[in-house]
Amino acid sequence: MTRRPVPTTAASGSRLPASFVMLIGSFTLLPAMSTDMYLPSLPQVATDLGTTAAGAQFTITGMVLGGAAGQLIVGPLSDRVGRRKPALVAVSGHVLISLLCAIAPSIGVLAGLRLLQGFFAASGIVTAIAVVRDRYTGSEVARLMSRLMLVIAAAPMLAPSIGTVVAGQWGWRAVFLVLAGVGGALLLFALLRLPESLPPERRQRHGVGALARGYLDLLRDKRFRALAVLPGMAQAVVISYVAGSPFVLREQFGLSGGQFSLVFALGGASLVAGSQLNAGLVRRISPSRLLRVGAPAMAGSSAVLVVMVVGGVGGVLGLLVPLWCALFALGFVTSNASALALSRHGERAGTAAATIGALQSGVAGSVSPLVGLLGGDAVAMTSVILGTAVVALLVLGLATPIYRRQGWVALDAPGSDPSPDLEGAGLVTSAESGATATA
Prior knowledge:
- This protein is mainly alpha-helical.
- 76% of the residues lie in helices and 0% in strands.
- Helix 4 packs antiparallel against helix 5.
């Protein structure tokens, strides 16, 4: 297959190319599908492979660990060799590992394969996000990331149902055959539509030792650290809700299975609604100004949530309404914080995207278990959500100038972002200038 040229990008305020949004969204969907579609099969896996529930659950933990490693390794690699090849190798690896999972003879083999599956799935995401940063800057990055929230929010709602049907009809091994088919379709799509967005003259030419120095350079940037950790804090809010809600809503508040599914879907819809409103507003309002409203709104809604639960006000609606408001506000945090962090280090977008992704997994994975440790009830779940939201607001306020006089202007200004050079090469669109770049 011949390499496709980088297509012309549209100016700020125009429509994002639908095929490009679908392609990047498909990369985002792959690890979510690989995790959530498999969840209903855990009891079958434990029985069939003769292991405990904890042993079966480690096949989920392996995905998370492999995903973190994949992002940290492949992100800098894509800065060195380009985006297209690592992305294609990652999806190909996911297809192969999915087929091997379908014939895994033991729980140990399956756990090891799931570790590799997480590695390849996350590798595809980090290269895809780097392609976004290569092609767009500022508000356009935030707008595209907001569109991707449709996929991120939809996967946990749809994938378990699909996995339940597949495993119920053909067994848990068939789930991996479906995942291999999904990966194969994405591989064909990427072969046809994924451009090489990082030309040779912009690639990093340093040796392996530069990998660590690249991460150190990022972590020395105080504003980057603050912005990069915010998506992880936002993800921790979501995961704390996801982990605690089955016990809180079904056991504590007595919701039926159907009622719980409806409530869960409405929570996802709130998150989607906030992210899509952000996508529309970011055309006219800078990401930093939207972020400085979204973060306190998320913390404020979480505070109301805790007050309603502790005071026993409003029953289940007293819990759900402020919770949905917090999820809605969260839609203004993740996309804008990611876009601002990426804009500070455009010359190593792969490494920056890997850092953001690894922090997102690490922070969310570290915070969400607190729900169970604190008792697993409504007070525990909402307290963790509030604490996470408040810490996120403090990080934003203390480590960035966003709440100082005209501080959002300084935050919008790229740090070491070589945007003029990229525009001259026709690879990105400056959302601030509204100029159209040509390939």
